[in-house]
Amino acid sequence: MSVLRDGFDKAILELGYGGSYSCVYPLKVNQGRHVCEVIRDFGYELGFGLEVGSKPELLAGLSLTCGMNGMPLVCNGFKDVEYIEMATLAAKMGRNVFTVVEQAYELERISASALRHGLVPRFGVRAKLAASGVGRWAGSSGLRGKFGLTTGEILHAVDYLTKNELLSGFRMLHCHMGSQVFDLRAVKVMVSELAQLYVQLWKAGVPIEVLNIGGGLGIDYDGTQSASACSVNYTLEQYACDVVDRIGSICDREGVPHPDLMSESGRWLVAHSSLLVCEVIGSRTFPTGPNPDLLERALQKDCPPQPVLDAHNAYRRVCEGDDFLRAYAEAENALAEATALFGLGHMDLEAKAACEELFWATGSAVLSAQEELPDGLDSLSDRLADIYFLNLSVFQSLLDSWGIEQLFPVLPIHRLDEQPTRRGVLVDITCDSDGRIDRFVAEGGSKATLELHPPASESELRACSTIPYYLGFFLTGAYQETLGDLHNLLGDSHAVHVSVGDDGHWRIDTIVDGDSVSDVLGRVQFDAAEIRIQLDEDVRAALGTGRLTPKEGASLRQFFDDSLEGYTYLK
Ligand code: PLP
Fold first, then answer.
1. How many domains is the chain built from?
2. pLDDT score recorded for residue 370
3. Which of 468, 492, 512 is the last residue of a domain?
4. Distance from Cα 25 to the centre of ligand 1, integer Å
5. Least crowded by CB within 10 Å, which of 51, 271, 446, 498?
6. Where are the alpha helices (DSSP H) in 209-323?
């Protein structure tokens, strides 16, 4: 947070800007109370505040800022009478609240609430700018955006406010061009339009003090520093300088005072704050050679099916260093024919299994024989990559990886003194084939597999029943668990809050248990108490018929009780 403060303060100082800067942290980006409390405490010292977008968020914001009346609380989002009333009453209590008018009809509600409570509240108006954003959230801006008032509506609002003696409350002009704005040019265009609007309104007598440029300050997830979806082509310093410079120079040209600046930078503040740690619970590798017994049996049949002979021939040719491309194509063809014959009932299980193993073995032999793969086989290593099973739900903890193909840096956080000799893709434990990650950060772009360590061998596992192998998913602090959902009823994962002191030492502040089975069942209207009663009736019936002994019945009840209170992920 102090980096953000310093970035803008430096730009303000260097460019001789007359206003100040503050940031309001949007709760929706990560509403975890412990995260919000840290932001609140640091933010208070830095003159920052909070942004909320709904009634529950406003109540959370009011609770977080209790006793900190000066802390700005910006209220965005769709508003009913109750939401506006809540904001007005908070202002009446002395809170530093800005209600932002997002839809024209909200003005009348603000005005009615102000009349009811005898105060002129401070509010902002969100402008629907023509400048459109870039990237996945470009739709948050532009003239067809969901929020904000058009220029005509703003003019109408000024008339309305003047007639109702509320113009003195219009203190903030707001806009938001969408999250993760990756191109600084787009920021400049938006800020220029906002500044021009401010200048004209100010000249028309609107006492705007604050220009709020919304969120959008992006994160370089893939390290490419480019104008692409998972990166940004600017630094914080460049962002701050361009915002301050654009607004300052437009105001200077028009002889209008520099307004204070505000941003609602959420992603930038919290993306780095969180790392998802996840255990690999197993892996699937493809055969590197055919099972000799199986192959012998398949070949020794009276009349081995042609695909078995072809697949075997392909495998032999690759092992002898023959034309890899043709041999691999022959193996592929043999597998396709074997599948078709098996489907028609003309091939037995052993022959089919032998064809499959020969196919994988042929691919694997090509890979190990050749450093540079010929054209046409360049994606072979991806096709033969291992599959690593992770004890997580992509839909709960890495939603953007599934929903919008967001790249997060991933790497093993164990065995870092060993060369990772395998390549793999990652799959989660949901019953959904979409629950997989097969795009990873790579130099200059992305890659389809990740370098990983070989899984523990059977004998290693026998020697020590738990050899953990954990992967870390980085930059997951913004929007992930918050947006994540209950696919397969896999709930929130455990969270550990860690802080680093001034002396550089870290400590665990809080451990927040993830959802229990009864928690997630409750969210889909299953009552754990009722489930207990139903299962208890079953146990009693089994006791009555002698299927269970009283001792077995008691331990079964205990087992179900423990399961209902247990963790939703694998143990
Ligand atoms: N402000 C508003 C109005 C938003 O809708 C959002 C999110 O899209 C933000 C701020 C936060 O944006 P970001 O996380 O990109 O900073």
1. 4
2. 72
3. 512
4. 9
5. 498
6. 236-254, 267-270, 292-299, 306-319
| Atom nearest to 268 CA in ligand 1 | 16
Q: Could you give the CA distance from residue 355 to residue 16 in angstroms, rounded to a whole number?
A: 75
127 and 54, same structural domain? yes
Do 15 and 163 share a structural domain? yes
State how beta strands 422-427 and 436-437 pair.
Answer: antiparallel
Q: Are 373 and 366 in contact (CB under 8 A)?
A: yes
180 CA from centroid of ligand 1 (Å): 9
- Find the residues whose C-beta lies inside 6 A of ligand 1: 26, 29, 51, 76, 176, 179-180, 214-217, 264-268, 478
Domain that holds residue 116: 2-273
Same structural domain for residues 154 and 221?
Answer: yes
Residue 127 sits in the same domain as residue 241: yes
pLDDT for 452-469, tens place per residue? 998 776 666 666 656 789
Let me know whether 377 and 388 are in one domain. no
- Cα–Cα distance, 382 to 447 (Å, whole number): 9
- pLDDT at position 142, please? 73
What's the 215 CA to ligand 1 centre distance in angstroms?
Answer: 4
CATH of the domain at 343: 1.20.58
Q: Which of 50, 264, 267, 270 to mutate to test the pocket of ligand 1 (most atoms within 8 A of CB)?
A: 264
Tell me the per-residue pLDDT of 480-538, one tens digit each, with 9 for 90 and over.
988 999 999 999 999 999 999 989 999 999 999 999 999 999 999 999 999 999 999 99
What's the mean per-residue pLDDT of the chain? 93
Average pLDDT over residues 372-381: 82
Nearest CA to ligand 1 atom 4: 215
What is the DSSP code (8-state) at residue 303? S
What is the pLDDT at residue 145?
77
pLDDT tens digits, one per residue of 11-69: 999 999 999 999 999 999 999 999 999 999 999 999 999 999 999 999 999 999 999 99
Q: From atom 8 of ligand 1, which residue's Cα is the shortest distance away?
A: 179
Q: Which of 52, 42, 43 is nearest to 22 (CA)?
A: 43
**Has residue 86 been placed in a domain?**
yes
* Residue 571 within any structural domain of the chain: no
The neighbour count for residue 225, using CB atoms within 10 Å, is: 12
Structural domain ending residue among the three candidates 329, 346, 381: 381
* Ligand 1, atom 12, residue with closest C-alpha: 215
pLDDT at 141 over 90: no
The C-alpha atoms of residue 566 and residue 571 are separated, in whole angstroms, by: 9
